[in-house]
């Protein structure tokens, strides 16, 4: 199964970065398409989107200033199926994408995604002190997977930091 298309452009407020597409996303060719994934609901409840979108509308979020990509393009059942080689290659590809498009914020959807990208073992939620790509703020948000054990209110509160950041910046 081939990867799904990125939704990237210049001047984006946020690029959301996942591990890789789920099998369901690979089948539908849309980001966060697994019905057990809470991504679209989290975006809406945190104030990042004015209404509840669904995965089939992922490309429409470019109009809101949001893009999508993954550290690894190949769809799998789970992140544990990604090889070290795929991560190494994906890390370089992702760095190049972020350097090229230079979003205001790169939001890593899960601590594990950011750890794989940054090679940092200790990661906190929210904005990171040091960015790998100069001029791009790095933000770590909880995974939106239905398997996450965090309370939904806690997850939404972390994503709300992004909403507050982008709404206070007039240039976004």
List the helices and strands and how they pair.
Blueprint: E1 14-18, H1 23-28, H2 39-45, E2 66-70, H3 84-101, E3 105-109, H4 111-118, E4 126-127, E5 137-141, H5 152-168
Parallel strand pairs: 1-2, 1-3, 3-5
Antiparallel strand pairs: 4-5
Word description of this protein:
With 172 residues, the protein is an alpha/beta fold. It has one domain: Uracil-DNA Glycosylase, subunit E (3-Layer(aba) Sandwich), CATH 3.40.470. The protein has 5 helices and 5 strands, in the order E-H-H-E-H-E-H-E-E-H. The chain has helices at 23-28, 39-45, 84-101, 111-118, 152-168; strands at residues 14-18, 66-70, 105-109, 126-127, 137-141. The longest helix is centred in the middle third of the chain and has 18 residues, at 84-101. The chain is globular, with a radius of gyration of 15 Å.
Name the descriptors.
about 170 residues, alpha/beta, Uracil-DNA Glycosylase, subunit E, about 35% helix, about 15% strand, DNA repair, Uracil-DNA glycosylase-like domain-containing protein, DNA damage, MUG/TDG
In short:
This protein is of the alpha/beta class. Helices cover 33% and strands 13% of the residues.
